[in-house]
User: Fold these one by one.
Assistant:
Number 1:
Amino acid sequence: MSRSRRIAKEMQDAQADPQSGIRLEMVSESDISHLKGYFEGPPGTPYEGGHYQVDIEIPSDYPFKPPRMKFDTKVYHPNISSQTGAICLDILKDTWSPVLTLKASLISLQSLLTSPEPSNPQDAEVAKHYMADRRGFDNTARYWAKVYAGADGGASATATTPAKTPDVFELYGIDRDSVKAFESMGFDQQRIVEVMRRIGIKKVGADGVEDRILEELLK
Amino acid sequence: MVQEGELPTIAVEHDPDQLDDLTILRLTQEIKDVEAFKNPLVGDFKPISVLLDEYKDATFRSKIKALGGGNAGYRPVRGDGNCAWRAFAFRYFELLSNLSKEEIEASSKFLLSRTGILDAAGYSETGYIDFVEETSNLFQKLPDMTPEQLVSEFNNAEVSSAIIVHFRLLAAAYIKTHADDYLPFIDDGEGADISEYCNRNIEAFSVEADHLALSALVNSMTTVDLGVVYMDRSAGEEAVVHNFFPAESTAEVDPPLLKIDLLYRPGHYDIFYK
């Protein structure tokens, strides 16, 4: 069985099934082992309307080893690194089976957007946000979809750079007034946001939280 | 994949705190590749005395001695998570290769007819056809192959891995089409899912076969009796042998019944010859 033949067949299959909403393209015509996959954010989720691009590297022993996939489009999701796009999904690791295909893998990524698994996170900060404040998480994820994935016509489909400079408060789901309070004490906004992200606090309010942030800022 | 003749090296310039999942996955794979490189996928036959040299432990030694001398021996198979499957598949074809062309043909026809249970279990033909084809190709070449050629065919990772996927799918399909028989063994009290079990334990490549998987494999093939010699530290002068017999009788079918023996040592299977 030839690996190239299988990949070519998989690409044809995906093309012949536009209903699936999955698109596969070669990055360069001379290299069948490097592809890009595309799909839409699933309806009823904060990712709805977003266009997602996934980088796909196919190892030499495919299909006996899983394809290496990561998001090119920035995604705010517990199982996807908000920095690198690295994905935590079992079928792309231990439970990969050679009967799975690139299309099936991309459909699984799409379902991952619908059903996050915060207990097995790729991005701890995002997972914490998801667990602690579901509504706040949804707002942030929706904002990222708009800024990076073109939901609501915000950006282009291949956006790794946002269409406009993203609002730092919306981007990390951090309360604007809480940051302002520290700014008025003379701290730098960027640093306040960095500290609040690091210790996983989105809003000042509960007892001791303000002191904790202050302590970090004064370090 | 590791090429013969070049030993892979592992890059160590990574800061452990900076590793992302993809890098960890890649490094783990590299470690496995280095390990694997030391042993062929399917090795050469060794007399049982070679095994005796490996152990100082009295329990092991008495059990190994009890396996018998004379022609008894084993054939090491690479420990890459597929060893039970690869051992089984190799031995299956090795036993067939000693039979007549007609018997090989009957076996081929019968095994390929079992593809029906893949359809019944809901696998798509596009998904499995490449792997079944590899099995079919080997059946066609088998009557003219020398024993050395068969070993070298199985050391071609693409060939033997494809056949392993075929056999894994047969086992998984058997479980899926006999869910009532298997559910009690899979049920952990929190609601078991047959499909999930098959995906994680059988379809997943490089996940070692458990007891259930071997039972399902034997049931799906219907023409093989499997004996597993458990070589462990449990009490006793002799190793425990567990036999798997197919649930459905093959009395009505043409292909010859084969007897495969595997030698189990904790975490690993090799082929056993009596």
Number 2:
Amino acid sequence: MVPYIAKRLLAAVPVLFGLTIIVFLIMAMIPGDPATAILGSYATPENVEKLNRALGLDKSLPQQYLIWLGNLLQGDLGRSYTLNRPVLDEVLERFSATLILAGAALLICSLAGLLAGIVSAVRQYGWADKIITVLVLVGISTPSFWLGLLLILIFSVSLRWLPVSGMYAIYGGGDLPDLLYHLTLPALTLSAVATGVIARLTRTAMLEVLRQDYIRTARAKGLKESRVIGKHAFKPALVNIVPVIGIQAGFVIGGAVYIETVFQWPGIGSMLVTAISTRDLLLVQGGVLVVAAAYVLFNLVADVVQTLLDPRLR
Amino acid sequence: MKRLFATAFALALFALAPASEAQTPPNALVVGQIAEPKSLDPQAVTAVNDFRILVNIYDGLVRYKDGTLEVEPSLAKSWKISDDGKTYTFTLRDGVTFHDGSPFNAEAVKFDFERMLDEKSPYHDTGPFPLAFFFSAVDKVIADDPQTVTFKLKEPYAPFLSNLAYPTGLIVSPEAVKKYGKDFGRHPSGTGAYKFEEWDANSKVVVTKNPDYWDGAPDLDAVIFRPITDANTRIAEMLSGGLDIMVEVPPDSLQQFRSDASFTVQEQAGPHVWFLILNAKEAPFDNKLARQAANYAINKKALVENILQGTADVAAGPTPPAFAWAYDDKLEPYPYDPAKAKELLKEAGYKGEEVTFYVTEGGSGMLDPVAMGTAIQADLEAVGMKVKIETFEWNSFLGKVNPGLEGKAAMAEMAWMTNDPDTLPFLTLRSEAFPDKGGFNSGYYSNPEVDKLLDKARQVTDQAERAKLYKQMQEIVHDDAPWVFVANWKQNAVTRSGVQGFKLQPSFFLMLQHVKKAS
């Protein structure tokens, strides 16, 4: 297992390396530059040139890239032009906020999706199955930013049960209950689509297993139904579900961009959006690098878990 | 099942969470900002969003008089201007200290301006200072004695005082700069009504009462600035009680707040003008008649009332009325007169050639540019002008427009907010300001008379004399019509009913020294 993991991690290095070049090129190709973005109305060619010089952007592209790469190897991601602070600080802070949000959403969608899928499969064509199928369809089809605004209107503006935005209370707070309190709405919103996808897949996977001969055998042996479902059916079905959860983890992080904007969650998605529109190259590079590395890691974890679950894959 | 689960989860959390969290804390004012500040170093930033915080932490040598764009004393008690307009001598207020305890004096002023302007200053690398050119006329700063500082200018430059009132001229603590270096922007120290307390990235900036403020300690204990980028979320926060003041309310939501007695809506016209640059180098707008025709053809009243829903006034000329002292109030907006427009187009020899119109998706001060662009296109087509719209994202748009429209487009949207009546015409309407000469005259308007007036207005320091020159300039430009003059934006803000003494300023800054909050 260890050599496998090491091989996979090593294979990720050229992927990430190539990615930084692509990001660099795309940022260089799109019109507009950081100096213009900073100066806005006052971007005279003279002012732009002066500011570019101050920002170190007057060097050639390959030169800029090499400098960036050299600094990266020393663990320095540079300094953001627009935020006047080290990119690494900002990226780590933002990414941990995204991880909390995405982690909570992933937990919700895994639990709720699996539960819904199992109930749906066991009660196939029953009323529970029908209700779940409809809810799943609604969950998958609702645009998440819209759902977020709707939940804000209901739970925050009308009922005033939950906060509208932010990660912690602006006064006091800062502890775990405060975090959970602020996390509820964004995590629920973010998990909606993934819950639907996982529920659907669990239902299919479970149905397939439930039709197998050994399930009939188990039932004929007089095993309790809960044991048949929970142990004999669910475990083999899970082998097919885990990689999907791994893929959903990627989608959840991607979807966090909208949710972070709607709920003003200080995550990396909303950071990247701002960084791109202000042409903050170093911030974009740092952010993309971290997100891509996480992506690679999630897929690896999903694969490893699948291998552990399924002896045939070892 | 999913819903059931969700509800159960939420209910479980309510049990954990403290109640009435959405209420704002007592005697601290919570302000909804549109974005995370870039820095709290006044010399390092360019956005109004950042200025709104800065003007509460720092003071300048001078400031804008309440409700106007005229300067009055602040950290400087008085000043003298030499007859040649090249020497400004300020007498400073004594006994003022920065929040970090170090004294404010002439040496501090000298240090600040040298940090920004002198590349050899050991602290110049705490920049970059993008708006340093506001003070490019400054040759030397001399600390004559602790309470007297003299600015020597390279040439007479009348906007100097109002530039000093701009946030780029705010005075920072030299000791704090020396201590924090490049990170000064996150550890600001000034002389203002509020002291910096905490900056929790992407969550809040907290400033607290400066009990020793030279101009009277504020009533509030603290002000909390919260960045909330999404306008809908900002509105929801306001409605749910998470904010006391919210700025830049979208037109669609203003009505909702107006009809609710627990909120007060304020509006204030600012030094903003929204216009169309017309390409005066190429047909059809190389002809003054065609340019005037465009001004007659576009129904500005409909734009302002229907699209902007009353959040702007119709503009009459190149200078916004907010510059009351320099504004020519005899100027009337071009009336909406399609018949006259058609006639003028015919007279100009326009034969229905297609023209290209650059529109942006959004940008600083651009209001609702796509909807406005489409309405303008329809108005022009109604008088027989075929208009092709090309839309760009803001940065790309600036990259297209700023180098000049020649060979690319006949017209482009644009908006400016400035702090002195000199800035906009000087940078955009002079022959010396063509894009290849480093200016923003992207439509290549040129009138020697206007050039002369604008040059002269920089040289004279007497405000009445300057006003006369600007008024003459406005009349000529109005007639020459290098732009279609469209709108002057009114900034708005919503406050909760308990907030007292809050007033929007024409500068668009957020002055909170005299605000009170009833519990």
